[in-house]
Design a protein that fits this description.
- The complex is a heterodimer of chains A (about 775) and B (about 180).
- Chain A is α/β, with parallel strands linked by helices and about 775 residues long.
- Chain A has 25 helices and 33 strands.
- In chain A, the strands form eight sheets. Chain A has a six-stranded mixed β-sheet with strand order 16-15-25-24-23-17.
- The radius of gyration of chain A is 28 Å and the shape is globular.
- Chain B is α+β, with helices and mostly antiparallel strands and about 180 residues long.
- Chain B contains five helices and six strands.
- A three-stranded antiparallel β-sheet of chain B has the order 2-3-5. In chain B, strands 1-4 form a two-stranded antiparallel sheet.
- In chain B, β2 and β3 form a beta hairpin.
- Chain B is elongated and about 100 Å long.
- The chains are: A alpha/beta (about 775), B alpha+beta (about 180).
- Chains A and B meet through β6 of A and α2, β2, β3 and β6 of B.
- β6 of chain A pairs parallel with β6 of chain B.
């Protein structure tokens, strides 16, 4: 730990840190552009000049490039460095246009800030400014190349960090250009990070174009709800409209990057069909009246038919608080314990992660610095996009990634990909064989091995085997950690809250005892398999009550509907894949956006006290009102911790924090069921979430439309030929859940003996994570 | 001393009154007569046009950010040629304190003050001015400035043809 002096302040920093980082730790801001804490320094902008007074070569140096040395004396405010920075500021501004008033970066522009802090104010250069021709980079990113200061951050972000291949640097001398070879939509699933990383307005969010100024936005630290990674985000809204999402900073999880699905998939909050009014049998009622009706109905049903008659259903997209309050509500009314996740298999695998794997959970940061990652049954870009970025960082640091999956897994990095069918993967994990032993050896020999396990594809049995593998390959020096990929933002949390012996939704519905179903932020039709069985059970119910914020079909069919709020309009906690508590804070109050109520015109001239569409309330608040115990979040957390000591750090947790882990639990005894035999003449059915539209949130995100794909049955070309099918033919696939007709596509990178189909809004019938499934494919049907 | 000061205080005001009785009165008969106000008097705000006749306002929100009483609100929109303009623009003159900070903040010289101070009425809503009430048909106190010709992003004229610009770089050119 060398100790150095910067501006008369002394600090000790770890070996290898630069002067810039040491100054930052002291709170001294050295102006800089090309340095970024995740991308490192390249010394391209020459802005961070400081004067080093000691050593063999004293003088003006670039703070981002010089590693600290013992006894170093540095000044940042001396005449030489100030003059140097002012000249650099002046030359960076030589070609910069005079368009800050019409630039979306204005107000949060690093160039504005650094030009002012460098001291440059008045333009002296009388020559002409260079210009560029812009490219159309698709619906997400707008380019204005004249604003470029050639710091290379975009290329380092897009190509180096995110692994995009269709963007780069072109040209020579003062014609250096950052863009695609040809115009077109940026292909990377992380293209939106260009907006955050560009220090000036070259790349701006096209979906947010001219909507608001940064200083006008209501912003708060939040958590992305669209997968289980739990990335830190900072959503921003104005005039009751959620207008943009940008990445927050969580060094342990997402660093400073988020995926395009999270960034551009926020349309659900302002979806035109979002239900905003409580309804009772097609009659609009007030929230209070609806709650009173709900209370009366629950009491009456419990009294008449017993505690089994009312079934409360929670969800892995509802916060920890909502799910816990649901359990409390059940206790209050004397009903049986609620089902916290309608998807039985997903709930079981999440419990596996929350209890049995909790001692050996890896974080994304661990994966970024791993030297061997075994990825089993995960398509990171579809199920947990930021995991793909973490894998890329591991590879960039010299690590190796081995992928076992039936799908054509695309990764933004080099990986050893083995296409195996789900059953073969289960067999590999269970019994090993030569390949399994080889993999175990590799893991044992690695310095920092990680296993990434897809809960949807591996199921309970697969995860149990993964745990055995991790135990086997750990040694005293280092453990082998596991990163489970769960489906929802709070899958871990719901699993942790519920008791292991909890039975599943459909069994309880089919018992016939349930008369009233209350779904809170849950739609079992879209989020759980066997939708037909659920739909049949719905007809036997006397009352269907839905509390939700998405315009799902279930919310339209409810006898009693009460609107709730999405995470951006609520404060609460999610627990992510790695068992990390992630707090989100309310960004906006619910209400119809002005853009809609005024239809682009000026706001209404008459003043009124009520906001249109402001009825929805957070589900946690509704449940508290229902049981007549309204508490502050802190009080609620204190009680929750008393019941769940594993969540001890919940009380002091704040939004924007990296988030502590839950306390590990003791693993439960395991029992492995033998693998089922594959029926003859069948193919294995692989249902995967689509990259865009696989989660419920992005189905209601209009901005993501350009990235959504048509549904197909994907088969290996050999398999197509064997079944006498051609690319594009319509085919009928008979599964346990019904038969479906879709066109087929040949996909040479996938496993043999499988039919792959993506679950999305265009094909919501089959739900991922339903366990091993088999199907029979035949030509025919009409091509819809 | 007190006595002398008391006597002086009694007679001096009479002397002032007497002296002014024979001067020409400064009072003007408003509203029949209007006063000639100084050129830089700060009263009602207007939105001016550039010399080409297009709206100067680019809805950059700087005036609303500068406004100490929050009486300006607006929403920006994009025209087909890439021009940023105000979809709606509202100044609430019941709140406005005529400090003129908005005109200082305006980077395009769009918002300007006029000497029209006659802003009174019984209905406060009539003092909430929308864009059509604010937009005038002249350039205000500057007849030459056109922001989009200076901005360097090719809205008023194609890129590289505005004053002080070189033509767009050919990025595939290898000449040194």
């Amino acid at each position: 730990m060398p100790t150095l002096t910067i501006d008369n302040q002394t600090i000790s920093v770890p070996e290898g840190k630069t002067i810039l980082e040491a100054a930052e730790a002291l709170g001294i801001m050295v102006p800089h552009f090309c340095y970024h804490k995740e991308l490192g320094a390249v010394g391209a902008c020459r802005m961070c000049a400081v004067t080093v007074h000691t050593g063999p070569m004293p003088g003006v140096k670039m703070a981002c490039l010089i590693a600290v040395e013992e006894g170093m004396v540095v000044t940042t405010g001396d005449e030489a460095s100030v003059a140097f920075r002012e000249r650099v500021g002046e030359w960076l501004m030589l070609n910069h246009p005079h368009d800050c008033p019409v630039c979306d970066e204005g107000g949060e522009c690093q160039l504005q800030e650094m030009t002012i802090s460098s001291g440059h104010g008045i333009r002296r250069y009388q020559g002409e400014k260079g210009t560029y021709t812009n490219q159309d980079l698709g619906p997400f990113i707008a380019q204005e190349m004249n604003r470029c200061i050639q710091c290379y951050r975009c290329a380092r972000t897009y190509k180096d960090y995110c692994g995009g291949r269709d963007f780069g640097v072109m040209g020579s001398r003062n014609r250096v250009f950052f863009g695609r070879f040809k115009e077109g939509m940026l292909e990377s699933d992380f293209s939106g990070n260009l907006v955050d990383l560009c220090p000036t307005g070259v790349f701006t969010d096209r979906t947010f174009r001219f909507k608001s100024r940064a200083w006008d936005l209501e912003q708060a630290d939040s958590v992305c709800p669209q997968c289980g990674v739990g990335c830190a985000t900072i959503p921003g809204g104005r005039l009751r409209e959620l207008q943009r999402v940008r990445s927050g900073d969580n060094p342990l999880v997402n660093a400073t990057f988020i995926c395009d699905r999270g960034r551009f998939g926020s349309g659900y909050a302002n979806h035109p069909e979002r239900p905003r009014q409580a309804r009772q049998e097609d009659q609009t009622v007030s929230i209070t009246a609806a709650l009173t009706a709900l209370e009366t109905q629950i009491r009456a049903t419990v009294k008449q038919h017993g505690p089994e008659a009312v079934l409360l259903v929670g969800s892995d997209r509802a916060s920890l608080e909502t799910n816990w309050l649901l359990q409390r509500t059940a206790k209050y009314f004397g009903c049986r314990v609620p089902v916290l996740n309608a998807h039985r298999q997903r709930h079981q695998t999440a419990q596996m992660a929350a209890f049995d794997l909790s001692e050996r959970l890896a974080s994304l940061q661990d994966i970024r610095s791993s030297d061997l990652v075994l990825v089993c049954g995960v398509d990171p870009l579809a199920e947990a996009p930021l995991l793909a970025l973490a894998l890329r960082q591991a590879v960039r640091k010299g690590g190796r990634v081995v992928v076992y999956d039936p799908r054509p897994v695309e990764l933004p990095c080099d990986a050893d990909r083995v296409a195996v069918s789900p059953l073969a993967l289960q067999e590999l994990l269970a019994d090993g064989g030569v390949e399994g032993r080889h993999l175990c050896d590799l893991l044992s020999q690695a310095k920092n091995p990680m296993i990434v396990a897809g809960a949807d594809l591996l199921g309970l049995a697969g995860l149990q085997n993964i745990r055995t593998w991790a135990e086997k390959t750990s040694n005293e020096e280092r453990p082998c950690l596991v990163y489970p990929v769960l489906a929802g933002p709070n899958s871990f949390g719901t699993a942790l809250l519920s008791l292991p012996e909890q039975d599943d939704l459909l069994t309880r519905l089919d018992s016939g005892k349930v008369k009233m179903l209350v779904c809170v932020d849950a739609d079992p039709l879209l989020e759980a398999p066997e939708g037909e069985r659920f739909a049949a059970a719905l007809t036997r119910l006397e009352q269907l009550v839905v509390l939700d914020y998405l315009p799902t079909s279930l919310s339209r069919h409810a006898n009693l509907f009460i609107p709730t709020c999405p995470p951006v309009e609520d404060s609460g906690t999610f627990i992510n894949n790695e068992g990390r508590l992630r707090r989100f804070q309310r960004v906006l109050k619910p209400g119809l956006s002005l853009a809609r109520t005024a239809a682009g015109e000026h706001p209404p001239r008459e003043f009124s006290l009520d906001t249109p569409g402001s009825d929805p309330q957070p589900a946690a608040l509704l449940l508290q009102r229902l049981i007549g115990q309204e508490q502050t979040l802190t009080e609620l957390h204190r009680q929750l911790v008393l019941e769940q000591p594993r969540l001890a750090s919940l009380v002091k947790l704040k939004a924007g924090e990296a988030g502590p882990r839950v306390v590990p639990a003791v693993a439960r005894p395991q029992s492995l069921d033998p693998l089922p035999e594959q029926p003859a003449q069948t193919l294995e059915l692989v249902v995967s979430p689509a990259r865009y539209g696989g989660d419920l949130f992005s189905r209601y995100a209009p901005k993501l439309e350009p990235r959504k794909r048509q549904p197909y049955f994907y088969l290996h070309p050999d398999e197509l030929q064997a079944h006498g099918l051609k690319d594009g033919d319509a085919a009928v696939v008979e599964t346990d859940f019904g038969s479906f007709t879709l066109p087929v596509r040949s996909q040479p990178d996938m496993a043999l003996g499988c039919v792959l189909v993506e679950n999305s809004e265009a094909f919501p019938q089959l739900i991922p994570g339903a366990g091993l499934g088999y199907c029979v494919i035949s030509a025919g049907g009409t091509n819809e | 001393m007190h006595v002398i000061r008391g006597i002086r205080g009694t007679f001096q005001p009479f002397w002032v009154t007497l002296r002014n009785m024979f001067r020409k009165p400064v009072t003007i008969q408003y509203p029949e007569e209007k006063q000639q106000l100084p050129e830089r008097y700060r009263a009602r705000l207007i939105l001016t046009r550039d010399p080409d006749g297009a709206e100067r306002c680019v809805a950059c929100h700087l005036c609303s950010a500068a406004c100490p009483v929050d009486c300006i609100s607006m929403q920006a929109a994009e025209a087909e040629d890439g021009r940023r303009y105000g979809a709606w623009f509202r100044i609430n003159f019941t709140r406005c304190i005529f400090c003129g900070l908005c005109t200082e903040a305006c980077p395009t010289l769009a918002i300007q003050v006029t000497a029209d101070f006659e802003l009174a009425g019984r209905d406060p809503l009539k003092l909430v001015y929308e864009k059509e009430d604010l937009l005038v048909d002249h350039c205000g106190n500057n007849n030459s400035y056109n922001f989009y010709r200076q901005s360097g992003i090719g809205v008023a004229a194609p890129r590289g043809t505005n004053p002080g610009e070189t033509p767009p770089a050919d990025v595939k050119d290898l000449m040194p």
